Amino acid sequence: MAAELDFSPPEVPEPTFLENVLHYGLVFGAIFQLICVLAIILPISKSHKTDSDSFESKSSEVVKKPKVAAPQLSKKPKKETKKKR
To answer: CA triplet 76, 81, 83: central angle to 5 degrees?
Structure first.
């Protein structure tokens, strides 16, 4: 009875080129995702923060200037009235 059982490993065909590309692409994608998650979790160095802070203050100044200079032509000028007390 023991002679009838076949315990040899099953025959697995060699992976094709497309299967290899798919396998390595999935591995590369998983490693890339781990790097992206670690970049979000780990803190940023102090030197990078000071550079970005100075850039943000400069960009906010540029945005504020055009808003003040833009006149509104559609509104009629309001009449000035004096309030009596």
So the answer is: 145
| Token duo for residue 31 | 């490693």
Specify burial of residue 54 (Cβ count, 10 A radius: 0-12, 13-18, 19+): exposed
Residues 6+ apart with CB under 8 A from 34: none
Q: Token digits for 17?
A: 């080129």
| Beta strand spans in 6-56 (E) | none
Query: Could you identify the residue written with the tokens 């697995």?
Result: 12
Cα–Cα distance for residue pair 26/18, rounded to 1 Å: 12
The rounded distance, in Å, linking the Cα atoms of 44 and 34 is: 17
pLDDT in tens, 25-71: 999 999 999 999 999 998 777 665 555 555 555 555 555 555 555 55
**Phi/psi of residue 3, nearest 5 degrees:** -75, -20
